[in-house]
């Protein structure tokens, strides 16, 4: 497969070599030049087929979800399955939009995800500033906790969280869910944000501090405005995680007026027993915020994500 | 370093020095409080629950020693779940790696233009953007006996009669694994793509001068350069996959006849359908210990790289 990535340069390099010192493998070089053109077309064709096969694997289920959301419930299991249905129907979407309970799931998801994002970004900026610009006692310990936290399985924490939230009176509240999510999003957000701050020269904020301003001012006036790309990637990451979370949303809420979209979809399975088109419609609607965020910010986001997760 | 420097400059003012010294603590305070209250404390709690009897459900839980662990570790159901988790994790991680590597190599190719490359990249990332709850519902539709995948398999004569993928004990583990593979490879792909773009071009140049073929370049340049990413991604993926809960819970729920029971679903059922929080905690601690062992290797591999 690496052949594919390098052939163009490869071709140029060998061409340059063949007219010069064709001493070593004269015949081999000649053979290569002869086969060059058809081989390249073959490669390109193979690559295209590979890409299309990959696109079918990745995209077909999503395509089917979209198609099914516009079908009527009887059409969904029509035999043979139809791609284009008779009436392109918005009924499923209208059913979701007209159900106050399902709208509530969306409102809850927004309340939780936006609060988590705001608080995570705030705390991550502060902590990352300390990690990037200061040496302090306990830094190593905190660092270990922050990295180690990512390895702590949610399933191992769900039981003590349940116990704690009940004890603290935070069971079945927004606050309980928001606090929970912050603990899971914050460590990685700090790692991403610290990596970002580390790329900015220390002279920037030190200059302000020499002029008599405090560290707080230096952070918010100088560093934060130029760190927008890093902050955006942290925010998008945090929003996606909290919008999509299922296990804690399921366990730490009891009543439907507090449940988020992922749990709501599950309820729909139980209640309406296989209103497939509605389930696909609410799935599409429930994915739109994340899809949009990703499409708009993918450049920032992927950069931030990879710089934080893997040192290469 | 900064602390030293700022500390030295206003050495005439003791208070300024103190402020500079305490400043980092102010900045990390919210994080420290949250992580201690909701990460360190819960871990201590769950360990405490696991060596007690009647945790959460009774006011005064009694100390039970290792009873919960012994009960669990002598239960064939637990070992069944552990084995399923192993099969599920190993096949998922291997497939994630292979698909992620294949897709990232294709996307990194210079043979396709920038626009198709961007389009394919977005399509390939798609599965990763959906929440597990949605993926589970979607695959239930796709793999329904009357669903589109059964139709396609029948029309190419790969199967005679429709298969109830999630309901049939012989196919359920395969079905949840395929679903998990679909849902999880994109993060691998993104990381490997970033890694590929970071491979210095002169390494390929040097390999070519030495007469390496494309495949040899892949083996001797690309793979070694990607090695650190592959290792850390594989370890992260092992962590995530062993903990996968929602996809299983919302498709098979561990069934039929426990063929897709995982450590995560066993733990959850013990706690929230059986209300045996002590046994569930013991199970949770076992998962935790396993995860921490993997994490130690992960941190080590990260350290040795930096």
From TrEMBL, chain A:
Keywords: Cell membrane, Membrane, Transmembrane, Transmembrane helix, Transport
Residue ranges annotated for the ABC transmembrane type-1 domain, each copy included: 106-297
The keyword Metal-binding appears for this protein: no
UniProt-listed InterPro entries: BP-dep_ABC_trans_perm, MetI-like, MetI-like_sf
UniProt name for this protein: Sugar ABC transporter permease
UniProt main location, coarse: membrane
Transmembrane intervals: 45-67, 110-132, 144-168, 174-197, 218-240, 280-302
Superkingdom as given in the UniProt entry: Bacteria
Region (Disordered): 1-29
Family to which this protein belongs: Belongs to the binding-protein-dependent transport system permease family.
One GO BP: transmembrane transport
Topological category with respect to the lipid bilayer: Multi-pass membrane protein
SUPFAM superfamilies hit by this protein: MetI-like
Location of the protein in the cell: Cell membrane
Organism: Subtercola boreus
One CC-aspect GO term: plasma membrane
UniProtKB/TrEMBL annotation, chain B:
Domain ABC transmembrane type-1: 82-298
Superkingdom of source: Bacteria
Residue intervals passing through the bilayer: 27-51, 86-107, 119-142, 173-194, 277-299
Keywords in alphabetical order: Cell membrane, Membrane, Transmembrane, Transmembrane helix, Transport
Entry coiled-coil feature ranges: none
Location(s), subcellular: Cell membrane
Membrane topology, as annotated: Multi-pass membrane protein
Keyword Transport part of the UniProt annotation: yes
GO cellular component terms given for this protein: plasma membrane
GO terms for biological process, alphabetical: transmembrane transport
Family statement drawn from the similarity comment of this UniProt entry: Belongs to the binding-protein-dependent transport system permease family.
Descriptive protein name: Sugar ABC transporter permease
